[in-house]
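Protocol step 4 of 6.
Sequence for Selenoprotein B, glycine/betaine/sarcosine/D-proline reductase family (Rubrobacter radiotolerans) entered exactly as in the expression construct, tag removed. Do not edit the line below.
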Amino acid sequence: MIEKAGIPTVSVTMLEEVTRKVDPPRALFVDTPLGYPLGGLQDHEMRRRILEEALSLLTEQENLPLLRTFPLDAP
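Step 5 output, structure tokens:
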């Protein structure tokens, strides 16, 4: 409903196989422990990077649905 109204959405997911079944328009898969989609509580840099990557997906309008994997080892 939100997407049909012209408002893009993005999900941050830790369960890639479930996300593929749900098929959201835009999703960012992050391979972190369940309950910590943005990484460790004190890892502010990692949290910022994950949020920036997720927000960057909002501009994607073509080739949807889109499921991108966040590179945990990237700087």
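Step 6, annotate. Helices lie at 16-22, 44-56.
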